[in-house]
Structure to design on (170 residues):
């Protein structure tokens, strides 16, 4: 805790300007083109970025729209996410009433609605039960298998072992 993981991610996503240095994400200079970087990446923060008073489907439609997926394309992508992440029975459930594991899954779906090249996951499984953690890692592996580059911060060494490369910050 306190080593700068979240701050580093916020700089790499273009949300926080660095005080010095350079960074390139997906071939784009973070300082010179923060908007271009944001279009190429997904970000799931430590705290759920969901709207509790919207349903699962409404959250997905909202985030798809933020990434420019509107009309038939947006609707098709939302339906695909609902199907792939098993939200069909929960599609009309308010996000605020979901369990921690389902909120985490919905946050991931929102962060990947636009099929980003790079995905930043900041302590994505903190506070969720072991079964939800395992299921989350199944989804991460599927995304990585499709070619998405994923950066994960975690305090769990069993999760770090699942990664191809590991860096320690202290």
């Amino acid at each position: 805790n306190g080593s700068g993981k979240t701050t580093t991610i916020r700089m790499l996503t273009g949300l926080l300007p660095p005080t010095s240095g350079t960074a390139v994400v997906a071939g784009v200079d973070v300082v010179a083109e923060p908007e271009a970087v944001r279009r190429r990446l997904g970000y799931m923060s430590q705290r759920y970025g969901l709207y509790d008073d919207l349903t699962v489907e409404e959250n997905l439609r909202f985030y798809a729209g933020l990434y420019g997926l509107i009309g038939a394309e947006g609707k098709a992508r939302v339906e695909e996410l609902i199907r792939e992440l098993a939200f069909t029975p929960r599609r009309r459930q308010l996000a605020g009433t979901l369990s921690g594991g389902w909120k985490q899954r919905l946050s991931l779906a929102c962060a990947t609605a636009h099929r980003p090249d790079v995905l930043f996951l900041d302590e994505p499984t903190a506070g969720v039960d072991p079964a939800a953690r395992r299921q989350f890692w199944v989804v991460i592996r599927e995304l990585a298998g499709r070619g998405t580059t994923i950066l994960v911060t975690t305090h769990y060494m069993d999760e770090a072992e699942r990664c191809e490369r590991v860096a320690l910050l202290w």
Summary: The chain has a mean pLDDT of 91. The first strand starts at residue 24 and ends at 25. The helical segments are 5-12, 34-40, 56-66, 71-84, 100-111, 130-145, 157-160. DSSP finds seven helices and five strands in the chain.
